[in-house]
């Protein structure tokens, strides 16, 4: 293993294990596998950049950032990454977030791979589990039949409203299939998307039966 990747891995494991189950180190491992699967058909990708970006992509997430917590740049510096590599990794990470639909433009193969890899872990069976894990950690309602999903919002609006977990499917997760960038990401997303649709159909039937 690349020494810089090895050092970053050692540093991030403890950090991510302090996050809730929706963004823990297991999430990183799944995204890494997704990224490697996508990259197999994209041989021009710099896998050092891809792997470092995956390892560090949630370190600066505003949902988990606390005063005094270490940044992705600081972790790269501590691992011995040169400025050029660190810049590429941070640019790749910047392109990953959904931000309420206000996403950054993809500027590299690596950015496309990591974005799609992360989004694959947000949908399908694991995406459903992660949504309710995050909602439970934040005290969110399972569902709110009166809540209207937003179709347009700023990043601040997206992050600040404590919507019900089911609403999150309509504001983000069901949109991701059509926002995939790579051909492999699009292919892998379809089955996961269809599973979410089936889950929501069943859930809505059960919710309706309870009214």
Question: What does this protein look like?
Answer:
- It comes from Sporosarcina koreensis.
- Residues 24-123 form the HD domain.
- This is HD domain-containing protein.
- The protein is mainly α and 211 residues long.
- The chain has a single domain (3-210), classed as Orthogonal Bundle (Hypothetical protein af1432), CATH 1.10.3210.
- The protein contains ten helices and no strands.
- Helix 3 crosses helix 5.
What attributes characterize this protein structure?
mainly alpha; Hypothetical protein af1432; 0% strand; HD/PDEase_dom; 211 residues
Strand content: under 5%
Number of domains: 1
SS elements, strand count: 0
Instruction: Kindly provide the radius of gyration, computed on alpha-carbon positions and rounded to a whole number of angstroms.
Output: 17 Å
Largest sheet: none
CATH class: Mainly Alpha
What share of residues is helical? Answer: 55-70%
Based on secondary structure, the structural category is mainly alpha
* Arithmetic mean of pLDDT: 92
What is the N-to-C succession of helices and strands? HHHHHHHHHH
Unreliable stretches, pLDDT < 50, 5 or more residues? none
CATH architecture term:
Orthogonal Bundle
CATH topology name: Hypothetical protein af1432
The helix count comes to 10
Report the span from N to C terminus: 55 Å
Shape, principal axes of CA atoms? globular
